[in-house]
């Protein structure tokens, strides 16, 4: 591992030099690729340098202790040796985690799709609650949100919504949110006070660039239609809504949010690209099924991952067995404790898998 880290440190030095070359700065594609590599290597090399400093303290203390010392000075050197060894061990453990191969999509922005499942109006209302939760979380981390497609109910719920969350490393934070979210609560319309259970499906797709997913226009069937919706002044009288069908995969995307057909098409293509990318990744993952099973959840939309229980004020994640009794703040976007626990569990599984391999 130490040899690997020394080579990575040398590589970081080379990247640094190249980033200062005016010819590289002008070549945007090359510059972006080098910046990505620089960003991924920097925390590893920072930790490696911390390890080297701790190792230097150990060597220094050992050298001192090999010579005759007065008792006070000897005690001081022994304490320095103990501390240095502890620091070396801690750095090595942290380096193991930093060296786990990164998901190539981790740095990407995401498209989140939320759909009401079982439970009718109650599911649609909870879908709206989840959209608000993710929006507040994004806001707390200074991420940018853009709604791509929205289908509301008359009661203020959401049948389905697709929205883009832009920022550094969004996918690394939100990728474990894919799956079925279950809510247990007493609906406002329930006179007997009985608890109802509804479900909402969440899919988190890494945003795909055009270069990553090459879509042949001949593979697309594009239909236009009039916007539907809950009625009122926003219902469109012209055929600006767009439905795009990707014939090879059968993936269908609709977008009717904007008054302009052109804007609806642009947003629909954004969603379509990410869904095709997800489809391609799913095929790759199926080929590496054993590896996927080792990770926290499968990212499958049909897997029940979490329960939100209103009467008990708790939220439970079934994959890692974590229950938090802070439902209100969680639904107000306070997700970091849960997300950090999921990331740690995933890293632990990958470390075990690496050691077993």
Textual characterization of the structure:
With 357 residues, this protein is α+β, with helices and mostly antiparallel strands. It is built from ten helices and eleven strands. The protein has helices at residues 2-19, 22-26, 28-65, 71-98, 120-140, 170-174, 261-287, 289-294, 327-331, 336-356, and strands at 110-116, 144-152, 158-166, 179-185, 196-206, 220-225, 241-246, 251-255, 304-309, 314-317, 322-324. The strands form two sheets. An eight-stranded mixed sheet has the order 2-3-1-5-4-9-10-11. The two termini are 16 Å apart.
Topology of helices and strands:
Elements: H1 2-19, H2 22-26, H3 28-65, H4 71-98, E1 110-116, H5 120-140, E2 144-152, E3 158-166, H6 170-174, E4 179-185, E5 196-206, E6 220-225, E7 241-246, E8 251-255, H7 261-287, H8 289-294, E9 304-309, E10 314-317, E11 322-324, H9 327-331, H10 336-356
Helix pairs in contact: 1-3, 3-4
Q: Which descriptors apply to this entry?
A:
single chain; 357 residues; alpha+beta; 8-stranded mixed beta sheet; 3-stranded antiparallel beta sheet; 10 helices; 49% helix; 20% strand
Give a brief outline of the structure.
This protein has 10 helices and 11 strands. It is α+β, with helices and mostly antiparallel strands and 357 residues long. The protein is flat, with a radius of gyration of 26 Å.
Q: Distance between termini?
A: 16 Å
Question: If you average the pLDDT, what whole number results?
Answer: 84
Task: Report Rg.
Answer: 26 Å
- What's the story with the biggest beta sheet? 8 strands, mixed
Low-confidence stretches: 230-236, 288-295
Please give the oligomerization state of what you see.
single chain
What string, H for helix and E for strand, traces the elements in order?
Answer: HHHHEHEEHEEEEEHHEEEHH
How much helical structure, as a percent, in the residues? 40-55%
Number of alpha- plus pi-helical segments: 10
Strand content: 15-25%
Shape: flat
Query: Which structural class best describes the helix and strand composition?
Result: alpha+beta
User: How many strand elements?
Assistant: 11
Query: Can you list the strand order of the major beta sheet?
Result: 2-3-1-5-4-9-10-11
């Amino acid at each position: 591992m130490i040899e690997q880290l020394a080579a990575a440190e040398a590589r970081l030095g080379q990247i640094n030099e190249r980033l200062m070359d005016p010819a590289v700065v002008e070549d945007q594609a090359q510059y972006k690729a080098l910046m990505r590599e620089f960003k991924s290597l920097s925390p590893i090399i920072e930790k490696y340098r911390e390890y080297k400093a701790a190792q230097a303290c150990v060597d220094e203390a050992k050298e001192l202790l090999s010579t005759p010392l007065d008792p006070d000075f000897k005690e001081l050197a022994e304490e320095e040796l103990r501390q240095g060894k502890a620091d070396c061990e801690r750095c090595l453990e942290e380096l193991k985690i930093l060296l786990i191969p990164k998901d190539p999509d981790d740095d990407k922005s995401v498209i989140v799709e939320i759909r009401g499942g079982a439970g009718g109006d109650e599911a649609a209302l909870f879908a709206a609650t989840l959209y608000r939760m993710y929006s507040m979380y994004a806001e707390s981390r200074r991420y940018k949100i853009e709604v791509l497609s929205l289908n509301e109910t008359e009661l203020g719920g959401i049948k389905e919504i697709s929205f883009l969350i832009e920022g550094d490393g969004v996918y690394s934070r939100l990728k474990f949110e894919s799956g079925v979210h279950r809510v247990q609560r007493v609906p406002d319309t329930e006179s007997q006070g009985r608890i109802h259970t509804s479900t909402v499906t969440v899919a988190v797709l890494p945003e795909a660039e055009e270069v990553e997913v090459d879509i042949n226009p001949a593979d697309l069937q594009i239909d236009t239609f009039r916007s539907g919706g809950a009625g009122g002044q926003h219902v469109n009288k012209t055929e600006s809504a767009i439905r795009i069908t990707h014939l090879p995969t059968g993936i269908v995307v609709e977008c009717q949010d904007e008054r302009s057909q052109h804007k609806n098409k642009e947003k629909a293509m954004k969603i379509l690209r990410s869904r095709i990318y997800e489809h391609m990744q799913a095929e790759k993952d199926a080929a590496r099924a054993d590896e996927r099973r080792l990770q926290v959840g499968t990212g499958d939309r049909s897997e029940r991952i979490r329960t939100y229980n209103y009467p008990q004020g708790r939220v439970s994640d079934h994959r890692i067995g974590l229950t938090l009794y802070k439902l209100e703040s969680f639904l107000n976007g306070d997700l970091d404790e849960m997300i950090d626990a999921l990331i740690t569990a995933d890293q632990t599984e990958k470390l075990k898998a690496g050691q077993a391999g």
